[in-house]
Model the fold of this input.
Amino acid sequence: MNSIEGLKTIYGQKKEGISSRLDDFRRVFSMTDETVFSELAFCICTPQSKAKSCDSAIKGLIDSGLLFSGSAPVIAWHLFGVRFHNNKARYIVAARDFFTKSGFIQIKETINKHDDIFELREFLVKNILGIGMKEASHFLRNIGMGDNIAILDRHILKNMQYCGAINNIPKTISKNKYLELERKLCDFSKDTEIPLAHLDLLFWSKETGEIFK
Done:
């Protein structure tokens, strides 16, 4: 069995769970602005940190109310298991300030002003500290808007190489390189008939054994 046949076999086993998880993500945007913002805060935390540690830290900040009111030093103290926690706490507070109007977080209103997902991603990258192409794509997927964009983290790139979608994993990824790799993953998605949004969770679960976020 070659790598692509093996991937399709795994997909057949996990497709239902992946579809269910994506349905969960699609429900997020119908929730409160605070819930949507919490997903952005989670994605700000994820670079070079374990997703589960970031998720646990953000949930703790939500439960304590500090995610929406705490200063950067206080938030940093609660980012247990998150690398570069001081910088990421500053980024979270800056993002909170950016989306706050008349004393309330209004992130959904800003998102709704953008009809094009690629334009929205570019807006996030340009305006939110700590958010690059990968993190913006991750956030948009986690609020149900990731059908046509790719989250190119090390798990994805490793599996793209393993399956022959790319020859080498680049040491650095500029914006243009990200878009080039994204197009290659889109082509791979079409060739394998596995939806782009499903590939991320499929590759992630292949590496970790579970479907997370």
